[in-house]
Amino acid sequence: MGILLHILWVNVLPLTLMIAIGFTIQRLFSLDIKTLSKLNFYVFSPAVIFNLLYTTDISAPLIGKVILFIAIFLLLQGAGVELVIRLRGLNGGMRGAMRNSVLFYNSANYGIPLNQLAFSGNPYTLGVQIIVMVSQSLIPNTYGIYSVNAHKTNLRGVMKTIISQPIIYVIPIAFLFNWFNVVLPKPVETPIVYLADAFIGTALLTLGVQLGSMKWKLDRSLLSNVLLSNFLRLAIGPALAGLILWGLGFFLEFDRMLAAALIVSSAVPTSLSSVLLAVEFDNEAEFASQTVFISTVLSIITVSVVIYLLHI
């Protein structure tokens, strides 16, 4: 129990405190969530992704193993979500909202600081988390946009929206600059570093502001869908990750730190991107907001338990 409380105090509560500050500020001053979201979406997030990919040496074998894991993980979890959607009889926009709430998890503004805290700033596990973050940055800006719009618009309109997202250009440019050792001029490098350093704080505050601006409805069906989504994300997610790694271990070598980093990365709560997509495209915003909020609260316990069981 002492170890569990230590994990809760050192690893998880600092993130929760930042979110709580944003929540409180929103209740006191009613900030403009759309402005904060645009700053995170178009400035801070691209900056931190570029900076991490540009400055972190990630080996090709590691990238291959992590991408293989992510592909299998998302495929199996997606299949599970589709089964739940059919069993629940969900229709229209709720189908896309449920998919996004489970498949998109907070690998950046929650996952990166959690990784840094849980693994004491280990550059190897940080590299693993960066690869996960890149995939979780690409998928919401491609498949996620398609998922929330497929039932109400044509493919051409969806594709037009997707190609306007900055993240799909930042990632390949950063990889190329890293691989070819391109040296950025100081007037370019310095602002990128400053913006990247601001990402975690502003993203966590933004999440708190979004949670503080939500409207709540005591709807039994909505609550049951929210709790079901949370169960799939927080409990089934890390359990499925462990099962996949056990299976892959028969064919490939996954060292203990790599496996632990991947399981921890799969245990984080629902991503804020699911809320941003829901708000931006008017698709079950109440469900998306409540899913993020409750999964974030529950993750205080579930993430602590996962880290405890891994004996990190």
Sheet-strand content, in percent, reads under 5%
The profile of the biggest β sheet is: none
Number of DSSP strand runs = 0
Enumerate the spans where pLDDT stays under 50 for 5 or more consecutive residues: none
Span between termini: 15 Å
Count of individual domains: 1
Rg calculated over all Cα atoms: 19 Å
Give the number of helices.
Answer: 15
Q: Tell me, what's the shape?
A: globular
Kindly report the average pLDDT value: 84
State the order of secondary-structure elements, H for helix, E for strand. Answer: HHHHHHHHHHHHHHH
Helix amount, in percent?
over 70%
- SS content category: mainly alpha
Task: Produce the secondary structure layout.
Layout: H1 2-29, H2 33-55, H3 60-88, H4 93-103, H5 111-118, H6 123-138, H7 140-149, H8 155-162, H9 167-179, H10 186-197, H11 199-212, H12 220-248, H13 256-265, H14 272-280, H15 285-310
Helix pairs in contact: 1-5, 1-11, 1-15, 2-9, 2-10, 2-11, 3-4, 3-6, 3-12, 4-7, 4-12, 4-15, 5-6, 6-13, 7-8, 7-14, 12-13, 12-15, 14-15
Describe the structure.
- The protein is mainly alpha-helical and 312 residues long.
- It has one domain.
- It is 79% helix and 0% strand.
- The protein has 15 helices and no strands.
- Helix 2 (33-55) runs parallel beside helix 9 (167-179).
Quick summary:
The chain has 312 residues and is mainly alpha-helical. The chain has helices at 2-29, 33-55, 60-88, 93-103, 111-118, 123-138, 140-149, 155-162, 167-179, 186-197, 199-212, 220-248, 256-265, 272-280, 285-310.
